Amino acid sequence: MTLINSTPRKDGFRMPGEFEPHAGCWMLWPERPDNWRLGAKPAQRAFATTAAAIAQFEPVTMGVSRGQFLNARQMLPAHVRVVEMSYDDSWIRDCGPTFVINDKGAVRGVDWDFNAWGGIYFPWDQDALVARKVLKIERLDRYKADLVLEGGSIHVDGEGTLLVTEECLLNPNRNPQLTKEKIEETLRECLNVEQIVWLDRGVCLDETSGHIDNLCCFVRPGVVALTWTDDRSDPQHEISLDAYDRLRAATDARGRKFEVHKIHQPEPMTITKEESEGIDAVEGTLPRRAGDRLAGSYINFYTANDGIVMPTFDDPHDGAAIETLQRLFPKRRIVDVPAREILLGGGNIHCITQQQP
User: Fold this and answer.
1) Where in the sequence is the domain holding 307, given as residue range(s)?
2) Pick the catalytic residue: 168, 204, 217, 351?
3) For this structure, is 351 an active site residue?
4) Helix and strand numbers, DSSP H then E, in the chain
5) How many CB atoms lie within 10 A of CB 96?
6) Tell me, what CATH number does 253's domain have?
7) DSSP-assigned beta bridge partners for residue 26
8) For 63-76, how does the pLDDT look when each residue is reduced to its tens digit (9 = 90+)?
9) Is there a contact between 188 and 194 (Cβ–Cβ < 8 Å)?
10) Is 174 helix (H, G, I), strand (E, B) or coil?
C-alpha cells in the first residue's frame, strides 16, 4: 500500500456510484457499551442479519476486535470473512475509506480525517486508523485527504455529480477553518466530481449533523430517492420539502434535471425507557434518553450487486417503502432487515457498510 502524493482527479480516478459493480462490502462488529445497549448483543444480532443479507449478493468482510473474534465468527455465516482489527465503533461508512476507480479498473482509496461527527463520541483515535488498515489489507494505494469528512455525508452518481448537505459539511464542528469554496475544491479533487448539489439539512435530529445518506441518495444517474412525510406538523416535512425544491431546481453534471422519488418515512420513533437504561453512558459520549426522537429513514439502505438491503421498523410504511424500492430497482432483489437496534446506535444499514468496487 503506497501513499499517493497526488489526488484522484489528477490521476484519473473517480468515486463510482453505489449502484456500480462491487468486489465486496466491509463492515465493523458492534460492541461499544456506551453506544449499543445490553452489551451490544441485540445490535450484534442485527449486524449479523445484515451481513448475511448482503452476503447473498457479494463478499462481505467483518472487522472484529480480538475480544469479540470468536463470538462474531460463531454468529456470522461461514462465507463472511472475519478479520481482526482494532477500532472504536462500527460505523465504517464514516471512518472507512472512500474507494475510487479509473477506467482501467484499478482501485485506490481516499483516507479522510475523522473526528467522530464533531467530537460527540470519545475516543475515536482507532476509528481514525480504519481507512488505512482496510486499504492495507486489500493492498490498495491510498490518498490522504486534508478534510474532516464521513462517507455518509457524500453521495455520487459516478458521472460527476455529488449530493451533500450544508448542515453537515459547513458545520463548524468539522472544518471551521475552511470556506465553502475550499471544501468544494477538495471534494472535486478527491471524488473527481464537477457538479455539487447542496441541500440544506438532513433528517430531523440526526446526530451526524445531517448526513445526506439518511435523506437522499442516487438510484441511478439523474434519479434520486428522497425521504418524505405528508405530515405538515412534523419538522421533517419542511426539511424534505426544501430538499425537494432544491433538487427540482438543480441539474446534474451532464445537464439533466433530477427525477425525484419520495419515500415516506416511518412514523416518528422515540427511545423507550428500557432502551435508554440498557446503555452504559459515560462522559464524552452522546447520551441516549427516553423520549428522544430517532432519525428513522428508509433511504439508509445498501445497494449490493443485484440486491437492495433495506431497513424496516415494524411500521405501517414498511410495505410501501419496499414496493417503491422494488419499482426503482426492478432488476435487484429487495431484502428487508429489522433495523431498530441499528437505529438506536445512531444510524442504519448504509452507515454500517462500505462498498468496495
Assistant:
1) 8-356
2) 351
3) yes
4) 12, 18
5) 28
6) 3.75.10.10
7) 61, 354
8) 999 999 999 999 99
9) yes
10) coil
